[in-house]
Amino acid sequence: MPSLEHYIVLGLSLFVIGMLGVCLRRNLIIIFMSVELMLNAANLLLVAFARHHNNLDGQIMVFFVMVIAAAEAAVGLALVINIFRHFKSINTESLKELRG
Amino acid sequence: MEIVLFYILAALTLVSAVAVLYCRNPIYSALSLVACMFGVAGHFALLDAHFLAVIQVVVYAGAIIVLVLFVTMLLNVNADLINRTSKFLWLAGGAFFLLLMATLLPWVLTQFDTSEKVLAMNPVQGTVQNLGQILFGDYVLTFEIAGVLILAAMVGAIIVAEEKDHKDLPKQQGADNA
């Protein structure tokens, strides 16, 4: 039977992998998917702790995190579409109009 | 038995999470993310969160990633035109991962009372009935606000993504320019 420590290690690994994806990749779509990875790691930890404390409030919070993630996905992808229309690329290297 | 299942699902989740980072083609990354979502849904089912496991597959894997795939295919990005992350950066990322795990994990694991090595024997099951009683009981206001939030996000996304002029649409005979 997996204990809480197993889930903490798994959730932390998933979160750090998502964070590395945001830092290392330059494709906006991949960065967006890495943010979804981080949200999933947080969801996993919430459910694990809900089980640990024998309380369903953690699962309710996961429900609302999924709602927020869906809303963020819609608006974020609309922004990506606009960025592509303006810059003709979704590489973060081309998003440097504010510099110098 | 459950520990074997945990390790299999954890392997699926972690390998597909690394594949999300590593693939050149964003379509492959999206498919790896679907596999990762299925792994996480399996973990939810293992943790007696049955409703959330189904919702994870339906909402995350079935709607959000499909939306990402639609946008990727709409934008028609060539995978090889994006600058590659250098090998040094990948190595630095892996070293950072190991460093973070080595420093955070010993501290995090001492913060919680994990002395009972096994999670609760007869937990509250995360069924639709139990979650519904809490959701529409204690958290009904949050539920309604979440509904309004989704409506606002939908309207906002439509307005932001709307094309202002028709320059990037293919020309059609007799199309109106409204």
Give a topology summary.
The complex is a heterodimer of chains A (100) and B (178).
Chain A: H1 4-24, H2 28-53, H3 57-87
Helix pairs in contact in A: 1-2, 2-3
Chain B: H1 2-22, H2 26-46, H3 50-75, H4 87-111, H5 128-135, H6 140-161
Helix pairs in contact in B: 1-2, 2-3
Largest sheet of chain A at a glance?
A: none
Major sheet description of chain B: none
Distance between the termini of chain B: 62 Å
The shape of chain B is globular
Q: Helix-strand pattern of chain A, N to C?
A: HHH
Which protein chains are joined by the largest interface, and how many residues does each one contribute?
Answer: A-B, 69 and 82 residues
Q: Could you state the order of secondary-structure elements of chain B as H and E?
A: HHHHHH
| Helix count from the secondary structure assignment of chain B | 6
- Using only C-alpha atoms, the radius of gyration of chain B works out to 22 Å
Give an overview in words:
The complex is a heterodimer of chains A (about 100) and B (about 180). Chain A is mainly alpha-helical and about 100 residues long. Chain A is about 80% helix and about 0% strand. Chain A has three helices and no strands. In chain A, helix 1 runs antiparallel to helix 2 (about 30-55) and helix 2 runs antiparallel to helix 3 (about 55-85). The longest helix of chain A has about 30 residues, at about 55-85. Chain B has about 180 residues and is mainly α. Chain B has helices at about 1-20, 25-45, 50-75, 85-110, 130-135, 140-160. In chain B, helix 1 (about 1-20) runs antiparallel to helix 2 and helix 2 runs antiparallel to helix 3 (about 50-75). Chain B is globular, with a radius of gyration of 22 Å. Classes of the chains: A mainly alpha (about 100), B mainly alpha (about 180).
Could you write a compact summary of the structure shown?
The complex is a heterodimer of chains A (100) and B (178). Chain A is mainly alpha-helical and 100 residues long.
